[in-house]
Amino acid sequence: MTVTLQSENGMLGMGPFPYEGEEDPDLINAGKQTITELPHTSYFDSATSFGMIRGGKIAMAILGAMEVAENGDLANWMIPGKLVKGMGGAMDLVAGVGRVVVVMDHTNKHGESKVLKQCTLPLTGAGVVDRIITNLGVLDVVEGGLRIVELAEGVSEDDMRAATEATLV
After folding, report:
1. Beta partners for 152?
2. Residue-wise pLDDT tens digits, 1-37
């Protein structure tokens, strides 16, 4: 299988992170991280990028989250009362792609679950998440809650259940 990564700021064929000392400050992804290009990389403007996203041309979005609910609700763009520079393209991504995968820490810095029965933060999208990958394992959104697909090395099902507010089926 060949996977081609797109960065919403206008790069198709995004390469890996560069080695230290080999960074090019002009090559960044939408998260402002330095990346590399590949021989088949192409560049385009934001209008074209979001045309691809909104037009259903992107098979899967992989993005971070502040909270995910057991029904697939996603909150990843703001915390009320904090300065917000803008909502970014996440709302377009989750509405315009075929599959949404969230990659995040399972708990916050206080040890509280970020995988919840209901999101408490403003939603980016309702019922849009298909899979959640955390430091504890992999969960799929299914009818009635979340199903454990895989546990991280050294993590037991009891550990996963203790760290998860959402219903695990």
Report:
1. none
2. 888 888 888 899 999 999 999 999 989 888 788 999 9
H or E element at residue 103: strand 99-103
Q: Which domains does the chain have, with CATH numbers?
A: 1-58 (no CATH), 59-169 (3.40.1080.10)
Of the candidates 165, 86, 162, the residue with the CA atom closest to the CA atom of residue 124: 86
The amino acid at 22: E
Question: What token pair was written down for 141?
Answer: 């959104």
70 labelled catalytic: no
Distance CA 38, CA 28 (A): 13
Rounded CA separation 97/58 (Å): 5
Amino acid identity at 10: G
Q: Whole-prediction pTM value?
A: 0.84
Report in angstroms the alpha-carbon separations of 64 from 7, 103, 109, 149, 162. Answer: 14, 5, 16, 19, 22
- CB contact set of 17 (below 8 Å; sequence gap of 6+): 33, 34, 35, 36
Residue 65 buriedness (CB in 10 A; 0-12 / 13-18 / 19+): buried
Distances from the Cα of 85 to the Cαs of 36, 44, 79, in angstroms?
26, 23, 12
